[in-house]
Each structure stands twice: as structure tokens, then as C-alpha cells.
Amino acid sequence: MKDKLASMLKEIRGQGNYRTVRYLRPVSASTLRHRGKEYLNLCSNSYLSLHLHPEVIEAAKSVVDDYGAGTCSSRSVSGSIDLYERLEDAIARYKGYKRGLIFPTGYMANIGIVSTIPGKGDIIFSDELNHSSLIDAMRLSYARKVIYRHRDAADLERKLKRHTGRGRSFVITESVFSMDGDMAPLKDIMEMRSRYGFHVIVDDAHGTGVFGKKGSGVEEHLGLKGRADIHMATFGKAMGSFGAFVLSDPVVIDYLINRARTFMYTTALPPAALAAAYAALGLVERDLSFKEDLWTNIDHVRTGLLDAGFDLKDSVGPIIPIVVGKDSDAVKMQKMLMAKGFFLQAIRPPTVPSGTSRLRLTVVRGFSRQQMDDAIEAITAAGKKMGLI
Ligand SMILES: Cc1ncc(COP(=O)(O)O)c(C=O)c1O
């Protein structure tokens, strides 16, 4: 076995696609230490920089004394401590849904939804760039899969007309795509739903806390708050904690409690994660300046990179793709920036389609003006060397 794996690893290396894990330590909301050197973190998903906010940390600490370090049971057994109930109620209210259910991770929430609800005889229509958790979830579903072109509502409609069946149909999309930072045509999808009668499943992992007047996500931003049939998002990105949730009608939630294996057969989230997420949600709801400050930074970085001549594709928020092309070129540019004190990852297949390897920059609230200007200058210099601009 080892020989076979070693030869496959050699092949991965040869493609410039070899990954390693980099161990690090956070220093501040925007910086980290890796092997003794300090870097500006240009790839955090903690968009609102809440993972180091004193109130969030204090909330996590304060429950440990009463509840302990872990739940040590699945939620169906004795893991559903009361901290779940208040967080499920709060997140459902914030996002305009009737009921919520927390899962250990977004990956597991997506697997739970898609492998449990669409079944034999049903059809799932899925955006071609949906997150790997949704792709894996479809592999576990007995429903038929139809892939439509990225963000292409016309292609979706063509496929809806062509593929009809006796069962139910589902359309699955991310709201803001994790690697391209562009937005799904949710308005078109919702409008088509009334004509074609499918069910809409939205993954708002990267929209939550970032988009919408109150920050509740892309649905709020587009005037569609609470309108998906099943909505999923995470506490592990803008909310600065860990875990994920599904929001829907009580019947859907009850069904997931009874049938979703990634809910039933895994240990529940620890108390500290639940308390941190609850505190972060409270902060975001009562203080819009978190979101406003993030958007000031997003506008600054985007303007700087656009002025430098970068093509930021159709990205619209904190996720900024700098598409380099070849895997090895993306790694080269990443190394140039790491050498200058900027921490980021080259994103390569299978995370993104072949030939579109990139640097995926993310903007967070914790950046200072100077840090952003330094990053823009360094990325511009590296982009020139790579012939991108
Ligand atoms: C769009 C999207 N969905 C789901 C997930 C999975 O969430 P989690 O990291 O909580 O498993 C992620 C992040 O990794 C994501 O980007």
C-alpha cells in the first residue's frame, strides 16, 4: 500500500499540486506566527474578526466551568445541552426561518441535508462550482444529479425543462461561492421555483454576517430573507466559532433529527463553541459597525487591486480570487508573497477546476489601513512578475 501511495504522491508533486499542513499560531485578528516569523493573514474566513473578540472569548470560557469541556454524546443521546436551544432559536430568528438545527460542521450539515431529503426518483440540479461538501453529499444521495453551468440561470432552466421526472426536484447552490466570491442568481432561481415547482437549498456559509443590511446573509441582501426551502450556513467563518446549522420548516427539521446520519451518529459540539457562536451572533445583531468596518476594508482592498489592473472576476465581497492558471505558477506566486510576510494558500485542483489555480485572498475587519496597503503593494509586485497585470 505504501509504495502505491508514495507513487501517487510523487505524481501529485510533479503536477505542482502537493499540499502540506502549515502549523501556526494566531497573534492578532489579522496576523499569525509560523515557524518563528510573523505574517499578515490573507486567507482567514473570520471576516468579522470575531474569533479573537474579548466578548466571544469570555463567553466560551464562562460556560466551561458549568458544562465542561465536551458534550461526549451524540445529540440524539445526551449531547443536546440547553445551549443548543437558545442558539438554534436565535439563528433561526436572525435569518427569518421557523426552526433551526445545529450540526457539528457545515460539511456534515450538507451531507445530512442532501443525502437525507432528496431520495430515489428525485432530481438534484446543482451549480457546477458548488462546494465539495455538496458534491460529496450528492454522491451519497439516491437522487439523480444534473449539473448546470456556474451561476447560469438560463442553463438551469434549459435543464429543468429537459429533465423531468415523477419525483421532486431540488436546486442546490451556494449563495456566495467559496473560491470565486461571486454570487448565485438567487432571484432568478426563486422566480423559476414558482414556475417549475422545485425546492431550493441554499448554502450561505460565506454570506452570513457579511451580506444584507443586518448581516444575516445573501438572502437578506437580495430581498429574499427566509425564502429558501432549506437554508444552511456555518458558525465557523464570519461568526468566529465552529459548527453549522440548517434552517427550515419544523417538519423538515424533525425529519433531519430522525434521519440525518451526520446528525444522529456523531458527538455534539462542545459547550464553548456554542457559547462563542451565541455571543458572536449577539454582537453582530446589536452592532452593525462590525459589518460596516469589514465593508470599508473590502472596498479599500478591491479598489487597490482593481486600480493595479487585476481581474477580480465577478467576485463581490471579502473573497477575492487572483487566478494565476497553472498549479505551479500559483505556488510560485504564493511563495513570493510568503517571503514578504503575507500568509496565503495557492488553491489548486481538486478544490478549483484545472487551469484556474489561484490565490484566494480574503479581507477581514481586523486589517489596518497600513496592512492593506502593504498587501496591495506586495500582490501588485508579485502579479507583475507573474505577468498577470
Ligand atoms: C460553501 C461552504 N459550504 C460548507 C462548508 C463546510 O463548512 P465547515 O467548515 O463548517 O465544515 C464550507 C467551508 O469549508 C464552505 O465554504
Uncertain segments are none
Query: CATH superfamily of the largest domain, called what?
Result: Type I PLP-dependent aspartate aminotransferase-like (Major domain)
Helix-strand category: alpha/beta
The coarse overall form would be globular
Q: Give the bound compounds.
A: pyridoxal-5'-phosphate
Number of separate domains: 2
Question: Beta-sheet strand percentage?
Answer: 15-25%
**What's the total number of strands?**
14
Largest sheet: 7 strands, mixed
Question: What's the short story on this structure?
Answer:
By secondary structure, the protein is of the alpha/beta class.
Explain this structure.
The N and C termini lie far apart (about 45 Å). By secondary structure, the chain is α/β, with parallel strands linked by helices. The protein has helices at about 1-15, 55-65, 75-80, 80-95, 105-115, 130-140, 155-160, 185-195, 220, 250-260, 260-265, 270-285, 290-310, 325-340, 370-385, and strands spanning about 25, 30-35, 35-40, 100-105, 125, 145-150, 170-175, 200-205, 230-235, 245-250, 320-325, 340-345, 345, 355-360. The radius of gyration is 21 Å and the shape is globular. The chain has two domains: about 15-45 and about 290-385, Aspartate Aminotransferase, domain 1; about 55-285, 3-Layer(aba) Sandwich (Aspartate Aminotransferase, domain 2), CATH 3.40.640. It binds pyridoxal-5'-phosphate. Pyridoxal-5'-phosphate binds next to helix 5.
